[in-house]
Write a structure and sequence with these properties.
single chain, Alpha-Beta Plaits, three-stranded antiparallel sheet, 3 strands, 31% helix, Copper chaperone CopZ, HMA_dom_sf, HMA_dom
Amino acid sequence: MTEIRLTVPDMSCGHCKAAIEGELTKLPTVQANADPDTKIVEVSYDESRVGEKEIKAAIEEAGYTVAA
């Protein structure tokens, strides 16, 4: 499993956490833990099934921005 940490500056509450984690876990093999206090999303996934581009797109689909 590959692990990445992404900064999501506009994540600020429990609803944000649930929305981001919910969207990410729709992707195959993805496990996510979002922390609104630190604005960090920790993601683990199988690179042979999904890529970082799809993970970032899922966060954006949930309505949030991933910092560069």
